[in-house]
Amino acid sequence: MGTGRDSHRNGVLNIGEVLQQLSGDFPQISASKIRFLEEKGLISPQRTPAGYRKYTDLDVERLRFVLALQRDQYLPLKVIKDYLDAIDRGERPEALPGGMALTPRVVSEQLSRELADRGRALSLAELGAKAGAGQELMADLLGYGLLHQQESGYDEHALGVVKACVELQAHGIEPRHLRSFRAAADRQMDLVEGAVAPLASRRDVASKARAAETAKEISGLCLRLHSALVNGDIARLDR
């Protein structure tokens, strides 16, 4: 098994190494703070097949930028995220209050490609290739409603679906066994939409942003509940 030092030489950091890099300038930084910023969409670290986060120099650069804006300019995360999203789209937005602007350091071709890929829609063939899924599996995912045909391309969420199904297939769990997940996701979305409807129906941008944040929070709580229920059942297997 590789050490943290080995991963750093390969340009990949674990969360402990990220904390070491940031703690000098931001003594209050914690792992939970970094995960919170990830949940809010400020950074998007890659994942290992086992689900562990892999942070790159670009992720650390973005974290340093976000933390400095929060500390020095007291900017809301929504404003910071909008700025970073514009950067990721290749735009050159005006500097934020205080004159701060994101100026990424020179990075490797691989890291540059990773950053570009995060905002690029994938074709169905690219989606399958990136997730390591064969044509038969991709056809089954479409047939059982776990994926839908998207002429505009597929995003990182679709990629997450396919990767999870590839790994489940290795355990003998096929797409036909997973149809209930699509139905459960639809029911959860109905629940979330109903809860945020009063905010989402307003026309002002601030209300729509709060609706989106609230929807993510409710969805996260639903996932926590689901995980707790399943893990509780699994724990009883050991008794």
From TrEMBL:
Domain HTH merR-type: 28-86
Keywords tagged on the record: DNA-binding
Keyword Chaperone: no
PROSITE patterns xrefs: HTH_MERR_2
CDD domains, sorted: HTH_MerR-like
Pfam families the UniProt entry points to: MerR_1
Keyword DNA-binding belongs to the record: yes
Protein name (database record): MerR family transcriptional regulator
